[in-house]
Structures are given as structure tokens and as C-alpha cells.
Design a protein that fits this description.
about 425 residues; Aspartate Aminotransferase, domain 2; 4-stranded antiparallel β-sheet; alpha/beta; 2 domains; 15 strands
């Protein structure tokens, strides 16, 4: 688009300052190599659905049971999203109204636990999520959170320890899944432990929902009572969430979402979720999911060859967690330097990290976004080389080297345009 033909003409006319910031973000997403594993590019269709007149509707309640009139079309939109979720994931029931992943998880607590009850999840420093009962979260303040972790020697979950903890503490809810887990989640093992200890098993698959939909990661459906997920990340939908469950839990889950926690759903987001679910059911999405994993494994191998220390020794999914201690560069310093080099990552704690969470030892990277742009395993050696050069430049404070990498990154990105972007 030229300056005379802005992408968002009404926005540019009404609020040119904000329009300029949107344009700058479009350019940034186009020019940089985005390696944050929780980010992705949505399609133009998802973008368009997110900005429709469905924004104008208030729709408290559920299809056929609303507190507002004029819901003839909204009911059909939400029903479409629900049915697509049920079909794609093979679940009995789906609720597409949660505003985001954290509210979705909070609804699980409201449905299955009382304040003060014991809940169990992976510890945040070990790769878990704040909402899995961690102390600084409301879920750790309102409930008694107990946490499991990973073995120090290999970065894998020790299920003997998980079972021992569950049998001792008898939690009402057990969460499996997290935000920095580079290995396949053994849902069957968690299912056995939950059943034996009498807990409700919740699979938080926010990071890997797209991989599950595409057949690149095992499904939790046979084992979990409830499945919680965001709809962005590997699923390539809008910023929203879903709860899926067995039929016996449907009423409790729905009641917890509305009226338990929320008012009217964001109908424009529901529509965009429906579009993303339709796209995820296509054969091309299965190819995408498989490519995400193949790229991550190739990138991990290339990083190992360059002397990087990877938590658990590699990856089975879309995510790689690097411990930069052997490189003698803190994660935060490396992440900020790589950002200046046009490589977008996030600094992250690693298991048993001696450093503080805001200044940790690790960096977390992933392949969903670069795969959406069409990069393949043949590009991963180059990506590893850029990361290696960037980390070395961070150690030396070499800004010229970072600028050189940024130019190389921009050149490759120009050859692989991102979905939904016109720049």
C-alpha cells in the first residue's frame, strides 16, 4: 500500500497517530524473524472476521438462551465455532466464549474447586503457567497450590514423583501442560495419576493446540476431563480461548464461564475462532503442523552443533528452551541483543535457574511464525547461525555485528511474505 492508499483508510483519517503505530507494527512483523513460540501470523480471513460488525452486538448467555434479543445471526456464528471445535478435536462439548487463556483456566477452578482447595500443576520455573496454582497468581492465592517439576539431569517429568505428590496431597484439580515444555506431554500417564488420586485432569494445551489439531502431537481427549486452550499460538486464530470437556462436565463448565466469570462474549472473536478452526481442518494445516515440528527439530540440532545447551537436550514440538550459562551471556542480555538483530525471542527461566525470573539464564524460541511464512528445514542452519552470531555479539557488545545480522534477516524475510501482511 502507498501513502495515498492506506491499508486502514478510516483509521488513518480519524486517528493518524494510531494508524502510524499499526503501520509500524506491520512493518516490524514483516521485517523480523519472529521466534517467540506463543506468537504466530493469522490469515487475512481471520483478520477480517476479527473486525466485522459482530463487534456491535451484546450476547450474554448461550445460543438459544440469550438475555438479549436480536441474536439470530450471533447464535449461528457461535454454534458454527462450537461444532467446528467439537469436530476438529473430537470432544463432546466446547465453550468458545472465554476471553483468553487465563480466564479460561480460572473458570476451571470455579467449576471444580472451592477456595482453599488443593490444586496441582507444574511449577512456573520448571515450565508451567502462572494459572496452574503458582503463588503470585490468583489461582495460587485463592487455592492451595502444590507443584511438580522436572528432573535436573534430563529436564523430563518424573511421573513417579508426580504420582507420589498427587497421592499425598489429593488435589481437586491437576493441570498438565505449560509454557516452556519442549517435550511431548504424556497425557495417558497424567490420566492414570488423576484417576488414582481422584482429581479432575485439565490439559492446558494452549501452546500445542495447533499441533494436536494437525496430528503432530498426541491428543489429550481420551484422558483429560477438561481441555483448556488459547486460540492463537500454533492454532493460528485470534486472541481468544476455548474450554472443551466431556459431556458430564458441560453444564459446570458453561456455568463457570457465564455467568460465573464473564458477561457477553466477544462475538467478533468468536467469528474469527470459527474461521481459524475451519482452516485448521484443512489438509494444508496438517502439513503446517508437521512442518512446525520438523523445523524445530532441525533448529535444535543446528543449535546443538554450535554448542548451545538445550533443556532436555532438544525438542519434540514447536519450542526450544536454551540455557545460555555456558555461553556466559544472561538470557535477558541475549534476548535484547537478538531483538536489535531482528530476531525476536523472549528471555526465560530454565529449570533450577540460579538467576532471578526477570534476569534469567535462558531464552525461549519456537518455530510457529517462521513456518507460517514458508521457511523450511533448509533454513534452520542459517537461523542457528544468526542466533549464534547474535549471542556472541551480545557478549562483546558488538552493535555492528547485530546490525549486519538484521540486514541479512530482513533480506530473507522479504523473500517469504507473512500471511495477513501487505508490507
Amino acid at each position: 500500500m502507498t501513502a495515498e492508499q492506506p491499508r486502514h483508510p478510516a483509521l488513518a483519517a480519524t486517528d493518524p497517530e494510531l494508524a502510524a503505530l499499526v503501520r509500524a507494527e506491520e512493518q516490524l512483523q514483516a521485517d523480523t524473524l519472529r521466534l517467540i513460540p506463543s506468537e504466530n501470523y493469522v490469515s487475512q480471513a481471520v483478520l477480517e472476521a476479527s473486525g466485522t460488525v459482530l463487534q456491535n452486538k451484546y450476547s450474554e448467555g448461550y445460543p438459544g438462551r440469550r438475555y438479549y434479543e436480536g441474536q439470530q445471526n450471533i447464535d449461528l456464528v457461535e454454534t458454527l465455532a462450537i461444532e467446528r471445535a467439537r469436530s476438529l478435536f473430537g470432544v463432546d462439548h466446547a465453550n468458545v466464549q472465554p476471553y483468553s487463556g487465563s480466564p479460561a483456566n480460572l473458570a476451571v477452578y470455579l467449576a471444580f474447586a472451592e477456595p482453599g482447595d488443593t490444586v496441582m500443576g507444574m511449577a512456573l520455573p520448571m515450565g508451567g503457567h502462572l494459572t496452574h496454582g503458582w503463588g503470585v497468581s490468583a489461582t495460587g492465592r485463592w487455592f492451595r497450590g502444590v507443584q511438580y517439576g522436572v528432573r535436573q539431569d534430563d529436564g523430563r517429568i518424573d511421573f513417579d514423583q508426580v504420582r507420589e505428590l498427587a497421592m499425598k496431597e489429593r488435589p481437586k484439580v491437576i493441570f498438565c501442560g505449560g509454557t516452556a515444555l519442549p517435550r511431548t506431554i504424556d497425557f495417558a500417564a497424567f490420566g492414570e495419576i488423576a484417576q488414582e488420586s481422584g482429581a479432575v485432569l485439565v490439559a492446558d494445551v494452549a501452546h500445542i493446540a495447533g499441533l494436536i489439531a494437525g496430528g503432530a502431537h498426541p491428543s489429550p481427549v481420551p484422558y483429560a476431563d477438561v481441555i483448556s486452550t488459547t486460540t492463537h499460538k500454533t492454532l493460528r486464530g485470534p486472541r481468544g480461548a476455548m474450554l472443551m470437556c466431556r459431556e458430564e462436565h458441560a453444564k459446570a463448565v458453561d456455568k463457570a464461564v457465564f455467568p460465573g466469570l464473564q458477561g457477553g462474549p466477544h462475538n467478533q472473536t468468536t467469528a474469527a475462532i470459527a474461521v481459524a478452526l475451519k482452516e485448521a481442518a484443512l489438509p494444508s494445516f496438517r502439513t503446517y503442523a508437521e512442518s512446525v515440528v520438523a523445523n524445530a527439530k532441525a533448529l535444535a540440532e543446528a543449535l546443538l552443533a554450535r554448542g548451545f545447551d538445550l533443556v532436555s537436550g532438544g525438542t519434540d514440538n514447536h519450542l526450544i528452551l536454551m540455557d545460555l550459562t555456558p555461553k556466559e551471556v544472561p538470557g535477558k542480555v541475549a534476548a535484547k541483543a537478538l531483538d536489535r538483530a531482528g530476531i525476536v525471542v523472549n528471555y526465560n527461566t530454565v529449570p533450577y535457574d540460579p538467576r532471578k525470573p526477570f534476569d534469567p539464564s535462558g531464552v525461549r524460541i519456537g518455530t510457529p511464525s517462521l513456518t507460517s511464512r514458508g521457511l523450511g528445514v533448509e533454513h534452520m542452519a542459517q537461523v542457528a547461525e544468526w542466533i549464534d552470531r547474535g549471542v556472541a555479539a551480545a557478549a562483546k557488545g558488538d552493535e555492528e555485528a547485530l546490525a549486519a545480522i538484521r540486514a541479512e534477516v530482513a533480506e530473507l524475510m522479504a523473500a517469504y511474505p507473512a500471511p495477513g501482511l501487505t508490507v
